[in-house]
Specification:
single chain; mainly alpha; globular; EamA_dom
Length: 356
């Protein structure tokens, strides 16, 4: 700035004029500090995120507390079907090399270890039961059903074995009325029958299509219906872990000698899949047992139809099994029956009026 210009400015200031004309000194931007740092730091975002999570959890807890028993049972059932899809795919993958009795024994050992690890009181409280005879009967039914059903899964296409197993629905509904004295309304009967008709569309039953493995699938479905009814009978007095630990003990005793006779040493990859199917099988066993403890057997049975989509997806992606057109037509019928059942199960309990 020149000397004359500086002198003139000082004269004007001395006279009290032109204060608004003072040129501010040029602002030097501190390049060491990023521009974004001048904004207030988002210190409230983590707290807000935690609050949002807690709010959602509280809403979910309130919804669960007022949900009907059949709706809670439906939630357990759908979760069980998802994890069972992984287990069945793994069994089909290793079942061509590892004997089925060996697979089931390893599965039961892993399940029992998981139950013991999660138990707070140890083994003795888990073994305490008021109905040991029914526990043994249910465990034998479970073992026989697994041998029949998983043999069919290994030997025939996954979607076909799953579809045949849907005949369990009629068996469960009939047994729920005869044995459990459950009341089944006309709409639920209609949903069950329509869903079973969808299964028949997929199967295209004929004399040529029924072979030994298909009959084993039907036998597995009948035995699974017996398992469902027995779980409902045990639900009043037995804990879920008690039912599962008794099943594990009975099956390990029954499978020990056949496994020893037919043992095939698994390699590292096969051990991985054996552990995976065991863990997922344990989770699925607990979820489906809990489902039938909470909800009515006849109300939950039609939900089993959704296994068809999971089986078709698994068979296509991992085993190159392409479902036929009849499978998709039947699947549409099955989905309609399943969605209707979920909607009917969603009736909530009446809320108490608020206190004045």
């Amino acid at each position: 700035m020149s000397e004359e210009r500086q002198t003139g400015r000082e004269d004007r200031l001395a006279q009290g004029e032109g204060s608004a004309e003072i040129e501010p000194p040029p602002r030097v931007l501190d390049t060491a500090e990023p521009v974004a740092s001048r904004e207030p730091p988002p210190t409230l975002e983590p707290a807000a995120a935690v609050g949002a999570v807690r709010s959602r959890r509280a809403r979910l807890t309130r919804w669960w507390s007022v949900a009907s028993p059949n709706l809670r049972g439906s939630a357990y059932m759908m979760a069980a079907l998802l994890v069972y899809a992984v287990m069945v795919g793994a069994i089909k993958h290793v079942g061509g090399v590892i004997p089925l009795v060996q697979i089931l024994l390893i599965r039961q050992i892993v399940m029992s270890l998981v139950l013991l690890a999660m138990s707070r009181g140890g083994l003795r409280p888990m073994l305490r039961t008021r109905r040991p005879g029914l526990q043994v009967i249910r465990s034998i039914l479970t073992l026989t059903a697994m041998l029949c059903g998983f043999t069919a899964v290994i030997q025939i296409p996954l979607a076909q074995a799953t579809a045949i197993g849907f005949s369990q629905v009629l068996f469960v509904t009939i047994a729920a009325v005869i044995v459990l004295k459950e009341v089944v309304d006309a709409r639920r009967w209609i949903a069950t029958v329509i869903g079973f008709l969808g299964v028949l569309v997929m199967l295209k039953p004929s004399s040529e299509g029924l072979d030994t493995f298909a009959l084993l699938a039907v036998a597995g479905a009948l035995l699974n219906a017996g398992i469902t009814v027995s779980v409902r009978m045990l639900a009043a007095t037995e804990r879920t872990d008690t039912i599962l630990i008794w099943q594990g003990m009975v099956m390990m005793v029954a499978l020990a000698i056949p496994t020893w006779l037919w043992w095939v040493p698994p390699d590292a990859t096969q051990w991985f899949w054996l552990i995976v199917l065991s863990l997922f099988g344990t989770a699925g066993q607990w979820l489906i047992t809990r489902a039938y403890q909470v909800g009515e057997a006849a109300a939950l049975a039609p939900l089993d139809f959704s296994r068809l989509l999971l089986a078709s997806f698994t068979g296509f992606v991992f085993f190159a099994e392409i479902p036929a057109l009849s499978t998709w037509i039947g699947a549409a019928i099955v989905i309609g029956a399943t969605l209707y059942t979920i909607r009917k199960n969603a009736r909530t309990l009446p809320r108490e009026p608020a206190a004045p």
